[in-house]
Amino acid sequence: MRISVIGCGYVGLVTGTGLAEAGHQVICTDNDPERIAALKSGVVPIYEPHLDTMLAENRRAQRLSFTSDAGEAVREGEAIFICVGTPPLETGEADLSAIDNVARLIAAEACESKLIVEKSTVQPRKSNCGRFTVRSWSDASTAPCT
Ligand SMILES: NC(=O)c1ccc[n+]([C@@H]2O[C@H](COP(=O)([O-])OP(=O)(O)OC[C@H]3O[C@@H](n4cnc5c(N)ncnc54)[C@H](O)[C@@H]3O)[C@@H](O)[C@H]2O)c1
């Protein structure tokens, strides 16, 4: 399966590398261009046991790639894993703005139906927020489909 991972932190990198190791074709993106540049040059910005070796092996096997072009990542994947950060707000709730940005991006770029997997932490009763955002922005958007 072609899988996109949005957010290359602890969750995204481990998820993407694990899915590539399982045989899927994985493309990962992040809005931090330095992080993507490091990953493209083989530098893994986080520590997880064996992650660097596994990541390098799957890049060599061309099952795992990195891009700063988030639109490309959205268009490539049949399934899209949202793994962006949701840091706590002063109220104690999670800041869901990064998920909202990704949901709008998916609505703008996706030309076909996608399976969206939300791995970021959200507060109870907010787990549908990304789905509603994608749906409402899809209705309003003119996706660049040919
Ligand atoms: N790390 C853990 O052990 C853990 C455990 C359970 C749940 N979570 C949850 O998983 C989510 C991710 O956690 P993490 O530890 O991987 O965070 P992280 O901060 O390590 O990584 C998040 C990544 O998302 C990127 N990002 C932010 N906004 C983006 C956008 N709009 N487009 C593309 N990339 C974007 C950031 O640049 C960063 O590299 C959070 O919601 C967290 O609460 C993490």
Largest sheet: 5 strands, parallel
Task: Work out the radius of gyration.
Answer: 15 Å
Q: How much helicity do the residues have?
A: 40-55%
The CATH architecture term is: 3-Layer(aba) Sandwich
Strand content: 15-25%
**What is the arithmetic mean of pLDDT?**
90
Number of strands: 5
State the shape: globular
Which small-molecule ligands are present, each listed once? nicotinamide-adenine-dinucleotide
Spans of at least 5 consecutive residues with low confidence: none
CATH class category label: Alpha Beta
End-to-end Cα distance, whole Å, is 22 Å
Helix-strand pattern: EHEHHEHEHEH
Please list the strands of the largest sheet in the order they lie side by side: 3-2-1-4-5
Can you tell me the CATH superfamily?
NAD(P)-binding Rossmann-like Domain
**Alpha-beta content class:** alpha/beta
Can you give a write-up of this model?
- By secondary structure, this protein is α/β, with parallel strands linked by helices.
- It has a single domain (2-137), classed as 3-Layer(aba) Sandwich (Rossmann fold).
- The chain is 42% helix and 15% strand.
- It contains six helices and five strands.
- It has helices at 10-21, 33-40, 51-60, 70-76, 97-109, 129-140; strands at residues 2-6, 25-29, 64-67, 79-82, 115-118.
- The chain has a five-stranded parallel β-sheet, with helices on both faces.
- Helix 4 crosses helix 5 and helix 5 packs parallel to helix 6 (129-140).
- The mean pLDDT is 90.
- The protein binds nicotinamide-adenine-dinucleotide.
- The site of nicotinamide-adenine-dinucleotide has 23 residues, from helix 1 and helix 5.
